[in-house]
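Supplementary Text 2. Reproducibility record for the structural model of the 149-residue chain.

All settings were left at their defaults, and a single model was retained for analysis rather than an ensemble. We include the record here because the model underlies the residue-level annotations in Supplementary Table 4.
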Amino acid sequence: MPGKNLEFAGLWRRFFGLLVDFCLFCALFFPVTRIVKGAWMMSANDHRWHSGFIAFDPLCGIFLLIMLLYFILLEGLLGFTVGKLAVGTRVIALDGNKPGLRKSIIRNILRIIDGLPALNLLGIYLIWKSPEKARFGDRIAGTRVIQIK
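Retained model, structure tokens:
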């Protein structure tokens, strides 16, 4: 990997970057939910399809798609999201360039694996134990999250 002086972003910096991104999502999604559904936050009964532990609504599906596209497009094309920029981090490919869409898709789809068994425990463990602070998605996609000087 070029630039031996790279400082990889640790857990707390990555956490606060995600927190900024999720606050941005909330600022958009809560008012939309209020307008469309008449509630600021939906309960299971507000969803179109609900049964036991499963609750889903097309509006939630749209929100999930927006979130996925947000991470894929911004990280892939720019190397950062609003949250990453706010905390001074960037996603890079192993060659030091922006990841591009292919690597970003792999990296973000594999958040599902990093989220296992719950509360992102696998991703947290891998970031904590890795010298390059790389979660599973980063390792497979060939990306790393670095601090911007």
